[in-house]
Amino acid sequence: MTARPRPLHLPMRVPAGLLGGLLIVVLTAQPAAAQLSDAQLGGRVVDAVRHCPTFSIFDDVSIGVSNRNVTINGWVTDASKRDDIARRASRVDGIRSITNAIVVLPMTETDVRLRLRVARAIYGNAQFWRYGSSSNPPIHIIVSHGHVMLSGAVSDETEKALAFALSHVAGALTVTNTLRVDRD
Question: pTM of the predicted model, to two decimals?
Answer without folding.
Answer: 0.78
